């Protein structure tokens, strides 16, 4: 991909792309809770011929456990459909370290299994002289485990993290992610780890190769991991609003994190996606339009014959309700302006609530 702008698909994405590289948390489920429309949308996409590969930065769970969690929310899956950051990290290390090397694993059973499957001798103690430390997320990780990592790294072990996500979407909100725990080890050692997980390209390339994908599509809820990873891998990305980032975040997205397609939820897999077009200073899509005007209220929205400047967020502000096409136009206008040197900040725009057409 070249320009970081929205793309057009006259076909539903489930027909235009042979494999969907699906994030889990915030896209297919929230913790153990289902996400509205996700199961039906996945079933419809599969009926249209699209295959699903589930790509997750969460390295704590075995693929079989992830399968059970998906089946529990009515999304059938097989272990071979799962690509985890633990698997991606183990594969990356297998290309760098001799077979049988000792690796200190900080994390859950999914990480230990992935490393053992690649022929590594897995330990939890720095006394064993590990060649590398791999840190993944697990609710059991605490001071003792993090200190063992610090001891080994100080002794010269290579430091790798399965991912650097600061938060993790759960049923109750945003929980602490692996990146926040990694930061403790970095603070203690001064060593910043490499990572094979999102937003790196490695995990997406591995997943696409395993699936034999010819035209993969990345589907995610998080700009700085899922969509940045899609850009890094050279694959188009679909952003949904069921997880971390909201519609305003997308309008303000940096070039390296911008999605190619926008949707409220996974129903967007089974829809065509028009792209806004430049029209006399406006970006138009359907009956909506938007343009950058600068000033205190830098974005102007047009719905039919009516135009309105979007007022900045404030203590008494309420979300501005917009259509999917209007959201597309706002993103196109903002991205074009920023790429041309303009400055847009979160405080200059209201919260946006995107609603589906009735």
Automatic annotation (TrEMBL):
Pfam families documented for this protein: Hydrolase_6, Hydrolase_like
Source organism, top-level taxon: Bacteria
InterPro entries given in the database record: HAD-like_sf (IPR036412), HAD-SF_hydro_IIA (IPR006357), HAD_sf (IPR023214)
Protein name in the entry: HAD hydrolase-like protein
